[in-house]
Every structure is written in C-alpha cells, then in structure tokens.
Design goal:
About 50% of the residues lie in helices and about 15% in strands. It is α+β, with helices and mostly antiparallel strands. The longest helix has 20 residues, at about 110-125. The N and C termini lie far apart (about 70 Å).
Amino acid sequence: MIGRTIAHYQILEKLGEGGMGVVYKARDLHLGRLVALKLLPPEKVSRAAGDVSLRRFLQEAQAASALNHPNIVVVYEAGADQGIDFIAMELVAGKTLDRLIGTAGLPLETTLAYATQIADALAAAHAAGIVHRDLKPANIIVGDEGRVRILDFGLAKHWTRMDEATATIATLTETGTIVGTVAYMSPEQVEGRSLDAGSDIFSFGAVLYEMATGRRAFAGPSQAAVLAAVLRDEPAPAAGLPRALQEVIERCLRKRPEERFPTAADLKRALSAIPAAAATPSIAVLPFANLSADKENEYFSDGLAEEIINALTRVPGLRVIARTSAFCFRGKEQDVREIGARLGVDHILEGSVRRAGNRMRVTAQLVSAADGGHFWSERYDRELTDVFAIQDEISQSIAGKLRVQLGAGRGPAGKPTQDLEAYDLYLHGRYHLYQADPAGFAKAKQCFEQAIARDPQFALAYDGLAELHWYTGFFGLLPPKEAFSTGVWAALRALEIDDTLGETHALLGMFRKELDYNWPEVYREMRRAAELSPASPVVRLRNAVSGLLPLGRLQEAAAEIEGALQSDPLSLFMRWWLVVMLHFGRQYGRAMEQARLMLELDARNYLGHFAAGLVYLERRMFDEGTAAFRRAAELSGGAPLMLGWLGVALAQAGDTAGARAMLERLHEMARVAYVPPTSFAWLHLGLGETDSAFTWMERAIDARDPMIMPIKSYAFLDALRPDPRYLALLRKMNLEP
C-alpha cells in the first residue's frame, strides 16, 4: 500500500494494525497535512461476517466525529475508494499508553495528569450519550507534548438507546467470543448485560490501576481465568499510593455499577483533588513518650501532644492528622516511613516529656516520613508554668520549617486557664474520656468537674463535660434525655465563656438535634462551627450525623465523613459512621468494604462487628449477621443496644424463640437500667408485630433515643412509610415532608 493514493490521501508508511483495520501515515493532498489513515481492506468484510466489521468501522467514525474534545482524537473524514473503506483522523506524534507503562508503573504526578485528561474525555463522550466500551492502554495515545487522546471508538455505543437484547448482540461476535480486551471489561460487559457510562468507569479503573502499579488489575493464565477474576476477584492492594488515589481506584472497580462514581465528571473532580492534597504540607504528631519516673504521667505527655495538634490545626495550609489516628501507633515498633504511608503524611513529629516536680523537659523532633531524615529538633527545659508557651513555640517552629504561615487572627490560642492544677485535671479528664468505657467516663466526669471547680471560667473543661454527656447518652449508659440535658448546659456555658470554640458549636448543634428536633438551630450551629474550625474532622462528623443524616441527605453525609477521614484515617468511630451512611444509602458493597477495614484495624472493637452485621442483614445473609451481632454483644459487655440488634438478627433469621428470649432479657434489663426503646421497636418489627413496634418508636422519640434519628433511612421501615402513624412520628420530630 505504500505510495498508493486512496481518495486524496497518499499513503507514506504503516503505523500499526489491529482487529479493526490497518493504520497508515498519509498525506492529505488537498490540505497538505499529515493524517492517520485507517483502512478496512475488502477481505475484512465478508457475507459470513454479516458486514459486522464494516458496521463497527463506520461506527467508530460516527462516534468520534460527534465529539469535539482535546483529549479525543479528531476524525476528519470517512469514506470509501477503490473498494476500500477509510477513516482519516488526526495524526498524533507519540506512544500508546501500553508502551509507556513500565513494570513499576508511571510516576504519581504523570499518572494523575494522564488520568485526569482521560476522565475529562470520558465525561464529554458520556455527555453525548456515547460509551467507549473498549477503553484500554492500547487505545490511549500520549502525544510528545504530553496531551492524552483516546482512540478507537469502534465498539462505541449510544447507551441511552440500549436494551438487554441490543447489549448482548453488540457484545458478542458471531463466533461467540467477547469483543474487546477482557482484562479491562466491566463485569456487566463480561456478562453481556446492558451498559452505561459506569462500564467505562470500571475500565478506566483498570487502566488507572495499571498506570499506578505497572500491573494489570485482573490477570490469569487464560482468558477464562481473567474473565473469572473480573467477575469475582479484587485486585491486589495498590500499596505505596496516596490513600485518596487508592480509594478512587477501588471505587471505580466496584463490581456493582451503582457503587462506582456516578459520572466521569465526578471521577475527574476526585482525581483533581489528589494533587492539591499531595501538594499540601501534612503532619502527624505521635504521642509523646512519657520519660517521667511516675508512669501515671502519661496523661500529661499525651495532653501535651494533643495540644500541639490543636495548635497546628490553626496553621492555614497545613493538613494535620487527628489525635485518634496519630495515637494508634502508641507502643508499636513501626518505622516512620510506614507510619507516614498509613496516615498519608510527609512529616512526623515525635517527642518525649520528662516531668519532675515543677519542672519538665520536653524534646521534639520533626522527621521526614519519606526517608526518616531530620528537619528540626529542639529541647525545652522549663517550669510547668511554661507549658502553654512550649506548645506555641513548637507549632511556630514547625510552621516555619514547613514554610506555612500562621495567618492573621489564627495565631496562638492563648492560655485556656490561668490555673495549672485545673489544666492538669482537664488533661486527666481527656485522657480518661478517650478510654471510651464506663470506668473511663466516670473518671473523666470527676476530673472535668474538679477542673471547673478550680476555674469556673475554664471553657474547655465545660466542653469536655458536654462531650462526655453526649457519649453517655448516645451509647445508653444514661437515659439520653437526662444525659443530653446536662450536656447542653455544659456546652452553652463553654460558649458563653469562649464563643470561638468551633467543635463546641457543632456539639451544641448535636444537642439541639437530640433534645429539641430544632433543625434551624442545628444548621446555625453547624455553619458557625464550620466557619470557626474548617479543618476539624470532628466538626465534619458532627454535621454529617446531626445536620444531614436525620433529613436523609445520605450522599452528602457520606461525603462529609470521607472528607473527615482524610485527617483521621484510622478512627474506628469515624469509619463506623461512614458504614452507617453507606448502609442507609443502600450502598451495601461499599459499606461492607468499610466494615471489613474496621475489623482489620481492630477485630476486638465491637463497632466493626456491629457494622458488618448491619450489612449482612440487608443482604439477607442471616447466619453471618447473627454471628456478627453476637460477637458485637460479647465484645461490648452485653450492652443493651447490641443485644437489641442481636434480637433483630435472630428474628429476621427465623429464630422466633431466640428473638423472644432476647426480648424478655431486654425487659429484665430495663427494670434496673436504661434500654433503648428502639431495641424493643426493631425486635417487635422483626417478629411482625407492627402495632407494638409503633408504640415503642413513639416512646423512642419521647425518650430522645438517638437510634430513632435515621427514621427516614432505615430500609426495614420502608413498608411502614404509607402508614399514617409513620407520618405522625415524622411530625413529632419536625421531619414531616
């Protein structure tokens, strides 16, 4: 063919060959430009094939020519000459992606740059109603100038007009083999089901995984093995990547289309946010080692580290890992590089405290999470009265070393109290509060109350007391109305002293939700909290739980918590709430992934088993659900809340006797302690006793049982929603439509 002229294109050299034809470099004799000329030779078209090849060949020209996007190859013309069909298109000087990806993958910056362009192109194609259906590295070319173009729309389809029969015909050739490259196909494409934009998003995930790791997401010794992997298996973990990128890949590759990104535009936004996060200086402050002779002084070294975390969160342009996640590494012999990778930060602050009498020695060192190299270190030998100055000096030094600035009005917070003994009691209280068990709560309450007695103007001590009462009410250690009423007083007193406490405003919003069902006040407090503490993961969590979940705004609530997890990635409580939001949003696959991650983090924490049980029940996996709730009940020490859910699982599994025995056990417990009314309501509902369930739901609202708050989202309440009694419950909570 070299030297031959087809129409007005003179063929110069062969560039490549594939199943859809041969591509040549050619010169346009009319316009004098170089083009890529794809030819479909006559032997490719036969009666036996039913002209399928020609149909796909022309389909490529029609689909690509309908798109005008810088990351999609331009089609100039399609036609036929001398019995040969041709497509003339843009000639791109560059290499296809499969030739650029090495065994270690592409550099992170390059991966993100290419991926963002591909996602943008897919968004344009999908907006035009076109699904590519054969996205793979060989169909993506990178020009010498770095711009990406998607090629080969031969399998493209206008998905808005597809049905099951059309999809099957379009996916299979006449010989029964699957069209496309199986390693990049979506599960629905493998099974011959109807396709939409979600199929391309899955294929994109496979391409992104390969760019990032150098390995195919789905591989095997045969085509059948690869197909099975696409349908059944998860890719090997993409270790060493930023957590945000791993999450994008995981979401793209979910087996169920509805659990992937809704659109390629959403995918592009998620990718675009990763470089910005990676460019932001980030730090984790590990718990300071207690080198004092008295080992009970651990509360003081922990408190100092936590206060430094709080000071650093006031530094604009610095991402700071929350205490919950940073303190997970206490007592563990792990290299700072491993810690940095798990937390997604590039700097680690380590330190120690030695306290003797009224003096202390504090050492601190800032190290690189990439290689363990030291950026800065300092030792402070001071009086205890200088503890606040040390916190500020360390945060100022770190800001300087990381070249971020303390913005106007965001400098040192000042002394929270002039009474060092009150401050010491406050640190004791926070330490015990984090134990998150009844004994710890009792000790924390005593410490906070003693701190307030010493300094009635100590706002943070009131905040600690308010938070304590929210936890005791939420987990049913006290009747919620009693606990929340005490807690709201403490929160109001804290804000009366210091109205700039963002997390306290968010806590007050939670109390307004729990006690008053006063949604305008909830929104006002959450807005104020976000203004004062925009970087606080606690504020985002409280907004999700109180400002969004009760109204059924589940997608927004899940997004808030996912954002909070960027600063608190190892928090079990935070991740449990994400499971709850995904579960209520009927995204059961994603919810189960998060529940499994919780169990990997700590298999002895009952919340992980509780989370898994919720998902098992919705998937009608009753044996697994019962086992999960039974384990949750054991690990919680027989908490009534967990026993109630175990009873629900037994009822749904058909174990009526077991469910009734659990119901009787809860009634016995209720004679001496608080039992959430919803535990009775859900059990009666599981037993088919709707009237009793409504009675207990009304009691739950009156008792301010927090478990009634997602009333608009529980899947097992769907059948009750037309009932006038259900609407009456909504009205009592000011949640009527």
